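Minutes, project check-in
Item: structure for the 207-residue chain
Input as provided by the requester:
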Amino acid sequence: VDLLKKEPTKYRIFLWNILKEVPALQKDYAFPDFGLRLLKGLPMLFFGGRDSYTFMHYDIDLANIFHFHFDGEKEVVLFPQSETKKLYKVPHSLITHESIDFSNPDYQKWPALRHANGFKTTLKHGEVLYMPEGFWHYMKYITPGFSMSLRALARNPKNLGKAFYNILIMRHYDVLMRKLKGQDWIDAKNSRAITDTNKNVAALDEN
């Protein structure tokens, strides 16, 4: 935490379950009522130093997420699943190509992003952001800060089915291929992300 507060850094603390790690807080904490059944065993904290960021990704379980920001400022970029074909998604994974800077994208290098329709905002102390199930999200700490995410399972049957596929099949297949092929598998996926997305954007340009 001292490092995160002191200077710009790539390091972060993420998925830290405060009620598990500091159980005494359980008696002082009440979950808000948002009309969704929150997963009360998973109140996760996220800490970051200035300029640290997450890759553009969506969560493996396609959960509904309420993201509370408590300190500092954080830039957020969101896309719905309908924009996936324009985001350079890496096959057999939940991320886009890692070379893309979504806070300042290079449209010459990543032309499909010109066609992507999303949302961008800056979170400040006391604000909460709702991310509907399956939304892609990229977050960058403008200043040191921390947030908490509360989650609720996907309610759309299609998304729930996709969540089970991600957890039970896709994740294990990707782990197996990484063990068998190593960096070659990663390079092949990154290359395909570019090829497939450029085909999609070519079709859009023709239309």
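Outcome recorded: Residues 88 and 194 are 6 Å apart (CA to CA).
No further action items on this chain.
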